[in-house]
From TrEMBL:
This is LysR family transcriptional regulator. Belongs to the LysR transcriptional regulatory family. The keyword Transcription regulation applies. Keywords: DNA-binding, Transcription, Transcription regulation. It comes from the Bacteria. Pfam families: HTH_1, LysR_substrate. Residues 7-64 form the HTH lysR-type domain.
Length: 303
């Protein structure tokens, strides 16, 4: 049995922190330990496993093949150990840390309200939000960097569990001076001739739009791609381009008369916001609590 336990949780913690910072000294500072103690813990881990886990590139330590293999598994062990410690320490069940990844639209309109609601009822729960597009959120789940994700649209990865949260839809928008702005309807031919500025590939918004035009518009004139919605709104308001964005993101600009939502009956751009997490993760009361509060918030906003 002694050969089964060649590492400690402390050694795994040091390894994960070095992997994320690429520096022993920075990892030691974050873990409140000396640099020599961090180096010793890493050496003991590598000796116990019989494999080097990093390659040194200048002053940086970068994961090698074995390090990349170990990293998500080590994070999973540390996450499970945290749950065990919280349970047997007699703490309130809803306490600890939850790392949540969310797409830009969701973060902008929902995330702060959910966290504020949780703070009032569960002050010992700390939510760490990470904002990125849906593709990066899913990668964070698979790499055990995130415990929960909220993405735009559906995920087809068999390793990911998902639950529909709420419905949303996209709209095609133009500046008020754009030639298409005053038409009662805009057909596919006119859309195909227009110049577009769109969200970047990998974002949920772009995926939904691409799915809506698939088989209908063979070649779209995409002039620019941006990850920031505000940049897209500014370009469209200037009058030269069209874009496709969540209605929630452009409602204020439409009400202010800066943008016009075009009627595009040939495009179905309804979508859902979905909670996603790893299927192989254990039961997580923090995750369940977050989802419950998010659903209550969505119901109150749509009432």
């Amino acid at each position: 049995m002694q050969h089964l336990y060649r590492f400690s949780l402390k050694q795994l913690s040091v390894f994960v922190c070095i992997a994320e910072t690429q520096s022993v000294s920075v990892a030691a500072q974050q873990l409140a330990m000396t640099q020599s103690a961090a180096s010793m813990a890493l050496n003991q881990l590598e000796t116990g496993l019989g494999q080097k886990l990093f390659e040194r590139q200048g002053k940086r330590l970068r994961l090698n093949h074995w390090g990349h293999w170990l990293r998500p598994r080590a994070k999973r062990v540390l996450m499970e150990s945290q749950h065990i410690m919280q349970g047997f320490a007699g703490q309130q069940v809803i306490s600890g840390e939850l790392t949540v990844g969310a797409s830009q639209t969701i973060a902008e309109y929902f995330l702060a309200k959910i966290i504020a609601s949780l703070d009032q009822q569960f002050p010992d729960l700390v939510v760490h939000p990470q904002i990125s597009n849906s593709e990066v959120v899913l990668a964070g789940l698979l790499d055990y960097r995130l415990q929960l994700g909220i993405i735009e649209g559906h995920c087809s990865d068999s390793r990911i569990a998902q639950q529909v949260w709420c419905e949303d839809h996209l709209v095609v928008v133009a500046g008020k001076q754009h030639p298409l702005a005053n038409l009662p309807e805009v057909n596919l031919a006119r859309l195909s001739r227009a110049r577009w500025v769109l969200r970047e590939t990998g974002s949920g918004t772009r995926d939904i739009f691409n799915g809506a035009i698939h088989g209908k518009i063979t070649k779209l004139k995409v002039w620019r791609e941006y990850s920031h919605v505000a940049s897209l709104i500014a370009l469209v308001a200037d009058g030269a381009y069209l874009s496709c964005l969540p209605l929630r993101s452009v409602e204020q600009a439409i009400q202010a008369g800066e943008l016009v939502a075009l009627a595009t009956p040939d495009l179905d751009m309804r979508r859902s916001f979905n909670f996603v997490w790893r299927k192989d993760s254990s039961q997580n009361p923090l995750r369940d609590c977050f989802i419950e509060h998010a659903c209550a918030l969505s119901a109150s906003l749509s009432a």
